[in-house]
User: What shape does this take?
Amino acid sequence: MSSKVRFSVSLDQTTNQAIEKLAQRHKPELSKSYIVEYALVRFPDAMEAKQLGAGGRM
Assistant: This one.
């Protein structure tokens, strides 16, 4: 069974508003925490693919 670790994130006003708009557009409405978790879970794979595609450079 996997466990999750809780942490806090501070966002600037523009980023927070963008996430809120994204959450509200989805039906049913998504939570901001779900959107942030979704992005963070996919970030390592995206960075690895970017590094491999750039010949190991960022």
Observations:
- Residues 32-53 form the longest helix (22 residues).
- Residues 31-58 form one domain.
- The CA atoms of residues 23 and 34 lie 9 Å apart.
- The helical segments are 13-25, 32-53.
